[in-house]
Amino acid sequence: MNVVAEPSFRESVDLMFNRAAALMDLSPGLEQKIRVCNATYTVRFGVRLRGKIETFVGYRAVHSEHMEPVKGGIRYAPNVHQDEVEALAALMTYKCALVETPFGGSKGGLCIDPRQYDEHELEQITRRFAYELIKRDLIHPSQNVPAPDMGTGEREMAWIADQYARMNTTDINARACVTGKPLHGGGISGRVEATGRGVQYALREFFRHPEDVAKAGLSGTLDGKRIIVQGLGNVGYHAALFLSQEDGARITTVIERDGAIVDPEGVDIPALRDWIAKHGGVRDCPFGTYVEDGAALLEAECDILIPAALEGVINLTNAARIQAPLIIEAANGPITAGADEILRRKGAVVIPDLYANAGGVTVSYFEWVKNLSHIRFGRMQRRSEEAHYQLLVDELERLSADKGLGWELSPDFKRKYMQGASELDLVRSGLDDTMRTAYQSMREVWHSREEVSDLRVAAYMVAIERVARSYRSKGL
Ligand SMILES: NC(=O)c1ccc[n+]([C@@H]2O[C@H](COP(=O)([O-])OP(=O)(O)OC[C@H]3O[C@@H](n4cnc5c(N)ncnc54)[C@H](O)[C@@H]3O)[C@@H](O)[C@H]2O)c1
């Protein structure tokens, strides 16, 4: 393998920021204020496990408090470090600004390989980590609200919410201290799938603009497009599932940590997911051809590449060989700053992380609002409204019959129309609207200024301008 000097993840994010800031009219002081991470708290705590005390290292970085609470996931991975959580926290600031969720940016991490511990041990470790953060208001409904990220999910969020509630028994808004909770524990429908769903909506929006699609050298719709996905975890699985089942795309390759599965006709995503859950990897999987060097397949021919696992996987060592004309960054930071430049020169179109994976924080926002408002979303309308909707449905059917159009409203449509939307309908339509609006705002900058060469720089410009506006109006 070539050894090439790459900037760190945080430096990479800063370089991307700098490229955008250079095209803007910011004072150097404000530019620096927005770029830097405000503070990072490091905690080392001991937990007695299997008769011995084990020490764990965790972080919570707060990048920008121009809006509070600050928001960002907690990652469990063996080599999490300060640079990484600061990069991820910065991305959260820009992401929240781009999709207009009223949060600053934060991120947490715990150095742990969760696969080495059983559920009871993970609960002990999570509760202890949460205790350390809650004590310092680094988990708090109005100050800092975590969510799932790599290696964590609903289960860990439920433990964190319970830990907060135990330590703050009189806080009526306790449930809003963390998002991504299970539905029965104050969560919201559609949160588990939200980031992958957002990737699908982002691609749908991109394909609504033939001019943009042509920039990637592609044409038509998502139907029949060949897609390579790296990482079949929460984000990659849902993106792959929805794109293959609902948009007619073919997932020709899935790259996992122990190799890849290739099937030019389209990998059976639910079957593969079940296989991984049972066997811990893709080796010996019967649903396609197994390839041991999975990472090499990032360079394979396809229409769309979806890195949905780790940062830095497309870097100076492989960027020149990437064949995908369109890359959507479902993961945070999968393309380094140097690789980004190489891809731009090659003419590849990159849909950037701060937009592409914003579905998670968008639906987290809905969950937080639901928790704070103490209402259930999407319930039955009043009876008078139901009668009103019935009249409209009758009228639509009468019109269709009169004009001989032969329309028939589906029972599902009638039910939804008359009962009001379910919580899941509301979440999906809110997410779709958010992804469309954010794309339009990036696109406008991308197309209106010649020096704006790509969607990433446009996304950063929109986000930085909004953060700057917030600081200008309220002061530092
Ligand atoms: N979960 C969310 O809501 C969310 C939101 C926004 C962004 N993200 C980002 O998406 C990415 C994935 O997060 P997730 O929540 O899906 O994590 P996850 O832990 O659910 O899944 C990660 C997947 O990647 C695989 N993987 C790990 N190392 C790999 C390697 N070297 N090669 C190939 N596959 C590998 C794992 O086996 C796993 O299947 C991260 O960058 C995360 O920051 C997640």
Automatic annotation (TrEMBL):
Keywords: Oxidoreductase. Residues 188-475 form the Glutamate/phenylalanine/leucine/valine/L-tryptophan dehydrogenase C-terminal domain. Belongs to the Glu/Leu/Phe/Val dehydrogenases family. The lineage of its organism: Bacteria, Pseudomonadati, Pseudomonadota, Alphaproteobacteria, Rhodobacterales. Coiled coil: none annotated. This is Glutamate dehydrogenase. It holds the Pfam family ELFV_dehydrog. GO terms for molecular function: oxidoreductase activity. It comes from Plastorhodobacter daqingensis. SUPFAM superfamilies: Aminoacid dehydrogenase-like, N-terminal domain, NAD(P)-binding Rossmann-fold domains.
